[in-house]
Design goal:
six-stranded mixed beta sheet; alpha/beta; 6 strands
């Protein structure tokens, strides 16, 4: 089994070009071996909708690292495996925009998989929202909290592999 870096980001506004929080769960040898969470100072305004959805506002991120400060810490982890997320194109897009907007060079492309996309193939008869899959598998979820969402996504990914999913079939490439 590959090493997976399962992550989830929360955003401060409708532009989805900054993070206000990130959760990371690392899967290795078929189990979650490490987890990380941080608020992120997005250096941007918060929309009321995002505040209501995530509970994160300007006060919450006061004193939190900016993305470039945080990236120094998380880059080695993010570079150490295949990225995974639920509705991965969203999270990958936010990551890409943060890297580009701050002028941070990383990789030109990365391998990733999406648990929502996998679910559509593996469980075609059901809905594939994160909370629906958590209900189906009996996974605790505090939705729209980056640490809980990344952990839940990692648990779902493990359930897929335990049921016999061929991981090679779901790996894609994302241009950064």
């Amino acid at each position: 089994m590959y090493r997976y870096i399962v992550f989830d980001v929360e955003t401060p506004n409708r532009y989805n070009d900054r993070m206000s929080a990130i959760g990371i769960s690392v899967i290795e040898d078929g189990r979650i071996i490490d987890e990380f969470f941080s608020y992120v100072n997005p250096e941007a305004e918060f929309d009321w909708f995002n505040i209501k959805l995530t509970g994160i506002d300007k006060r919450t991120v006061a004193g939190a690292p900016t993305f470039p400060e945080l990236w120094e810490k998380i880059e080695p982890v993010m570079s150490s495996g295949i990225l995974a997320a639920h509705n991965a194109v969203f999270d990958m897009g936010v990551l890409k925009k943060c890297l580009n907007d701050y002028g941070i060079l990383w990789k030109s492309s990365v391998h990733y998989c999406c648990t929502a996309r996998m679910g559509r193939v593996l469980l075609p008869e059901m809905r594939h929202k994160l909370n629906d899959l958590c209900d189906y598998y009996g996974i605790c979820l505090d939705h729209h909290k980056a640490d809980s969402d990344s952990h839940a996504c990692a648990e779902i990914l493990l359930r897929y592999f335990q049921s016999g999913a061929d991981e090679k079939m779901f790996i894609r490439t994302y241009k950064m």
